[in-house]
Amino acid sequence: MPNIKIDALPYRPCVGIMLVNKQNKVFVAKRKDNKDSKWRDTWQMPQGGIDEGEEPVNAAFRELEEETSVTRDKAILIAQSKTEHFYDLPEELVGRLWKGKWRGQRQYWFLMRLLGDDNDINIETEIPEFSEWKWSDIKVLADQIVPFKRDIYTALSKEFSLIL
After folding, report:
1. What is the mean pLDDT of the segment spanning 72-85?
2. CA 75 to chain CA centroid, nearest Å
């Protein structure tokens, strides 16, 4: 990125959701925009930006619905991560994502349980972000994610597995 100091850029305020089913399997999905990238075979949990003035927990429920169609009445909040998590984008993505405005994300993570069943999940949303989804074991969650988010997924798996 010419003329921009990446280290001087702020982190994008964001939420992430670890949605688990009754068997404590974790919802993960493949991003549509990764189809032709080196990360096309990676999975992620739902996440997204916090709107100005929005409380993180409300952002989490909004993002969950926007990305999975799971409405607030179909999920229950179990816990929030003890710390805020940060990650930096790889240099080649900084200028391409978010119009070069952010260096990465600062995330509040929430553990939620799906109260319904698989039929309540629909990734063909108004603005679809995912091409496919599955339930994953929490023990292998970090192995499936892009490398620059792996530390966060490892920490979340450890923290939230103690609650499940």
Report:
1. 97
2. 16
